[in-house]
Write a structure and sequence with these properties.
With 167 residues, the protein is α+β, with helices and mostly antiparallel strands. The protein has helices spanning 13-32, 34-44, 47-55, 102-111, 129-137, and strands at residues 4-7, 59-65, 70-78, 85-93, 119-124, 141-146, 158-164.
């Protein structure tokens, strides 16, 4: 199936939520357990949170769409705390659609959305070796570690990775 990368709209919110739930359970249940993943997806991927991301002025929310279903999502926004830095907050591909280039295609589009950014930064679960290898292939390198991925006091460890953006 051919997926086209496009900007997400409010009509996509429920499909995005479903994709994130499926992808998070497939990826993180083994690390955190199903109950914790359900709690995180309910909070972090609520309809209100996704709508806010879609409407964010300095952000870009993309979906890979084949006309029947979403194969992946990506969301990045300029950092309010770090100059000339875009934060990659989400890049997830439906498990049944992985290894088809969807993540690469979404990221390639996101890279071009922030002309004032010099760096793209992300946080990734340290045990998610597939994701770390994927980001390494895209040119990211580890620059730090945090014990609070996604926000203060989350208690979730992450590898912090960065990639210089072409200016």
């Amino acid at each position: 199936m051919v997926f086209f990368v496009r900007t997400a709209g409010e009509q996509d919110v429920e499909a995005i939520r479903a994709l994130l739930r499926e992808t998070w359970h497939a990826t993180y249940d083994g690390f955190y357990g199903s109950a914790k993943v359900a709690e995180l997806t309910t909070t972090w991927h609520s309809a209100a949170a996704i709508k806010a991301q879609i409407g964010k002025r300095d952000g870009e929310f993309l979906v890979a769409d084949d006309g029947r279903k979403l194969g992946g999502v990506g969301y990045a926004a300029m950092s309010p705390k770090m100059t000339k830095t875009a934060m990659l907050h989400q890049l997830y591909v439906r498990p049944s659609c992985q290894n088809e280039g969807i993540g690469r295609d979404i990221f390639a589009e996101l890279e071009t959305c922030f002309p004032d950014a010099e760096i793209m930064r992300l946080e990734v679960e340290p045990r998610n070796v597939r994701a770390i290898a994927f980001y390494n292939r895209l040119g990211f390198i580890e620059v730090d570690r945090t014990k609070n991925c996604g926000g203060a006091d989350s208690g979730i460890e992450a590898v912090v990775m960065e990639k210089p953006l072409a200016g």
